[in-house]
Amino acid sequence: MTGFSSRMQMSREVAQALASNKPVVALESTILCHGMPYPSNVRTALEVEEIIRSAGAVPATIAIIGGIPHVGLTRKEIEMLGREGHKVKKVSRRDLAYVVASRVHGATTVSATMILAHAAGVRVFVTGGIGGVHRGVESTWDVSTDLRELGRTPVCVVCAGVKSILDIPKTLEYLETEGVPVMTYGQKDFPSFFTASSGVRSPMTVGSAEQAAAVVGAQADLGLGGTLVAVPIPREHQ
Fold first, then answer.
1. What is the mean pLDDT for each group of 10 consecutive residues in the chain (238 residues)?
2. Helix H segments across 73-130?
3. Is residue 163 annotated as part of the catalytic site, yes or no?
4. Which of 58, 90, 177, 230 has the fewest CB atoms inside 10 Å of its own CB, making it the most exposed?
5. Are β-strands 200-201 and 189-190 bridged in parallel, bridged antiparallel, or unpaired?
6. Which chain positions lie within coiled-coil regions (predicted)?
7. At what angle are helices 40-54 and 75-84 packed, to 10 degrees?
8. Residue 90 bears catalytic tag
9. What structural domains and CATH numbers belong to the chain?
């Protein structure tokens, strides 16, 4: 991580927050470049940042610009990446070294965002949903690298679960194998991204942000990997 940190560029807002021990929340950039059309993608990215600021934290959108990992983007950088869209390479753990060495732009997925957030000292990362085990995995071996990253990188990922097109029971089994504490906020069932309940029982349930934070803190104190906090989408928005 030391080598990566030396290659990294951090925004002034994020650097000041970390130096002052203020809460910082990491955000991915794949949704900006590959999830929505322009200009909706830029508008949404900026709105999410403002929601985080209004709650008293500092947003740190993460991306690679010209081969340099950035933790915290300016409005101009968000606008540029949003306009470039699918021209920007999607970057997971596998692609980080290639994109950095090639000095091109990269939109970070969950796994790459976790790696760069950890390198920067950011401990919490919010995203829409994580990848998982695909249906038919017995023949395809299609398993998202997000799951392995959660087992090895000590960052708390907060999301709305995994998409229902994935194999949710197998995804939770894989996370158990990786030793990842999986907590669902406020209900017993694990959410499935677009819907509040997948019908699959969550390994753990927490009733408050304080309880979730206590688990995340204990995981860090024990020197273990990441944690996953699933927050169900409000039922009126399903």
1. 73 98 98 96 98 98 98 98 98 98 98 98 97 93 96 98 93 98 98 94 98 98 98 91
2. 75-84, 96-102, 110-120
3. yes
4. 177
5. antiparallel
6. none
7. 150
8. no
9. 1-127 (3.40.1790.10), 131-238 (3.40.1790.10)
